Amino acid sequence: MSAAQPRPLTIVGAGLAGALLAILLARDGRRVDVYEKRGDPRLRGYGGGRSINLALAERGRHALEQAGAEAAVMRQAVMMRGRMVHFADGSLQLQRYGRDDSEVIWSVHRGDLNLTLIGLAEAAGARLHFDRRLDAVDFDARSARFVDDRDGSAEQVDFAALVGADGAGSAVRAAMQRVADLGERVEPLDHGYRELEIPPADDGGFRIEPNALHIWPRGDYMCIALPNDERTFTVTLFMPNRGNPGFDTVRTPAQARALFARDFADALPLIPGLEADWAANPAGMLATLYLERWHLDGRAVLIGDAAHAMVPFHGQGMNCAFEDCVELARGLRDEAPLEEVFAGFQAARQPNALAIQHMALENYREMRDRVDDSDYLLQRALELELQQRHPDRFVPRYAMVSFMRIPYAVALERSRLQHALLERATRGLDDLEQVDRGALDAEVRAQLAPLEDF
Ligand SMILES: Cc1cc2nc3c(=O)[nH]c(=O)nc-3n(C[C@H](O)[C@H](O)[C@H](O)COP(=O)(O)OP(=O)(O)OC[C@H]3O[C@@H](n4cnc5c(N)ncnc54)[C@H](O)[C@@H]3O)c2cc1C
Question: Where is the FAD-binding domain positioned along the sequence (predicted)?
């Protein structure tokens, strides 16, 4: 097929990745059809459910920029400069994420973001089909069956290739798995989450500092709160599924109030609807999905959560999914056989997905259990100092993941070296006075090559 008539693609899922990919492909002049099981959110409101807001970082912003969507999204984003830690004694501390306001992350509303992307996809020429749930696929005949759950009616659709952008519970993945072993492994986290809301103050403003991601670390469990541009915060309680406290022992709204009164006392008065929110929002499960094969020759490929769902503790699932979209769109521009394009896409993205899945799991422990430790704070202070002394070599993991586009796998490898170095340099010390700067500088130069400008 000539470059002037690129092969059409059928995307399943008009969530975050599906809608962004549709924009990128349609802007390249490709015919794109997107099938989404939910109704059109522009007609009936957003029915997305979970995780009301998300942290958007550099990788995601860059992908949005590639799709011409960044300005529209950033108009509704709220800047978060760092973690505002709420200690158990009621004291507060802002731990900046980066060096200044050029190194921040942004809170975006999932529903608004999805609506913006859907609108832009359609404007770019993608054809969106709502109320179409993928039900079955015949890969040999390249034909898929979509069902409208409102009346049970079905539509048979022929496709050149399917892109599964249908999230962690992907129906495309399940259909692929029926004809080939994808090497799927799901590792559930034994912690879940529940969402609550801090409404605006009586004067219509924010009730707490808006430009921060608030954290109440409590060892084995924690609360976080992200701002929304309508002056609310979405609070998420992460807690073991079983334990004390755990979702099996804190079940009723009254038990939830008692937990907050004991462990999140300064948050409790900010959540007047705690009981109602608790009753309305069921606990969510968290898991990491590992998949050996992301594609079925040239007939189907998986992106985003469908290929590599991760726990949300680095705030990177969407950011990573958006990077997938840019990479797949780039590969498709070559017009090589689809099998090669999909294999190249998997080769480029899989090691990076594995790396961020790993870092996301590690970050959970850091957020709930480490941000108030004295040895952590000492290492963090030395880390910032080393970053200033060696800005081209020593870049904290959080910065490599959130403010740069260096491959996740490289960020993981370098941050392991850095962590070992920090641990060695601060072991047994109470302050940084005793650190041997000369020896440390030499180690940094020996172990960490300068980072190229990614
Ligand atoms: C509590 C929580 C907090 C998070 N916080 C962050 C964060 O701060 N930053 C971040 O980057 N990421 C975060 N994430 C991760 C992020 O939500 C996901 O990585 C992202 O939504 C993945 O996008 P996706 O398009 O692959 O999947 P989804 O957003 O899940 O979209 C899938 C779409 O496919 C549709 N669909 C499903 N099945 C079918 C079917 N059979 N037929 C047709 N359509 C179908 C769905 O309706 C949906 O529209 C968080 C996740 C959770 C759970």
Answer: 10-332
Q: Is any ligand 1 atom within 6 A of the Cβ of residue 17?
A: yes
- CA gyration radius for the chain? 23
Q: How far is the CA of 158 from the centre of ligand 1 (A)?
A: 26
Atom of ligand 1 nearest to the CA of 132: 43
Provide CATH code, domain 9-77+109-186+287-361. 3.50.50.60
Q: Is 162 touching ligand 1 by the criterion CB < 6 Å? A: no
- Contact (CB, 8 A) for 168 and 318: no
Establish whether residue 13 lines the binding site of ligand 1, counting it when its CB lies within 6 angstroms of any ligand atom.
yes
Report yes or no: 327 and 321 within 8 Å, Cβ to Cβ: no
CA of 15 to the centre of ligand 1 (A): 6
Phi, psi of 151, deg, nearest 5: -135, 0
14 lines ligand 1 (CB under 6 A): yes
User: How many CB atoms within 10 Å of residue 446?
Assistant: 8
Angle at which helix 437-447 crosses helix 408-426, to 10 degrees, equals 160
Q: Which ligand 1 atom sits closest to the C-alpha of 306?
A: 26
The verdict on the CB of residue 318 being under 6 Å from ligand 1 is yes
User: What is d(CA 449, CA 227) in angstroms, rounded to the nearest whole number?
Assistant: 38
Domain boundaries, the chain: 9-77+109-186+287-361, 188-284, 374-447
Judge whether 167 and 179 are in contact, CB under 8 Å. no
pLDDT of the chain, 454 residues: tens digit per residue: 444 466 799 999 999 999 999 999 999 999 999 999 999 999 877 765 556 899 999 999 999 999 999 999 999 999 999 999 999 999 999 999 988 999 999 999 999 999 999 999 999 999 999 999 999 999 999 999 999 999 999 999 999 999 999 999 999 999 999 999 999 999 999 999 999 999 999 999 999 999 999 999 999 999 999 999 999 999 999 999 999 999 999 999 999 999 999 999 999 999 999 999 999 999 999 999 999 999 999 999 999 999 999 999 999 999 999 999 999 999 999 989 999 999 999 999 999 999 999 999 999 877 777 766 778 888 989 998 999 999 999 999 999 999 999 999 999 999 999 999 999 999 988 889 989 999 999 999 999 999 975 5
